[in-house]
Write a structure and sequence with these properties.
Low-confidence stretches: none
Distance between the termini: 16 Å
Radius of gyration: 14 Å
Structural class: alpha+beta
Number of domains: 1
Strand content: 25-35%
Shape: globular
Mean pLDDT: 87
Length: 92
């Protein structure tokens, strides 16, 4: 199966929700549905490695950048997550 990928910089709460590390009150279902937009796919932690980030964590110690998933404007650490969207294969 082939995937299209979209990388996001997210807050710690969204990262933990994607990773299923802990139960928290941070509900990202609406944000996930918005990003999937009716397509099949799922989120996973991490991003593609780069020269500056060879481990592909996408971690920033502190940022005022809005969380790209829940859109919270609160400052804090940001982490990389990737949306894997299933590509529709042409019939034939």
């Amino acid at each position: 199966m082939k995937f299209d990928t979209v990388e996001y910089s997210v807050c710690q709460d969204c990262f933990m929700s994607v990773a299923h590390v802990c139960e928290n009150d941070h509900d990202i279902e609406a944000a996930v549905a918005r990003e999937l937009n009716g397509r099949k796919g799922h989120f996973c932690t991490g991003i593609a490695p780069t020269e500056e980030d060879p481990d592909g964590t996408g971690e920033e110690e502190f940022s005022w950048q809005e969380c790209e998933l829940c859109r919270s404007a609160l400052g804090g650490a940001r982490y990389g997550v990737t949306l894997l969207l299933e590509k529709e294969l042409a019939a034939g």
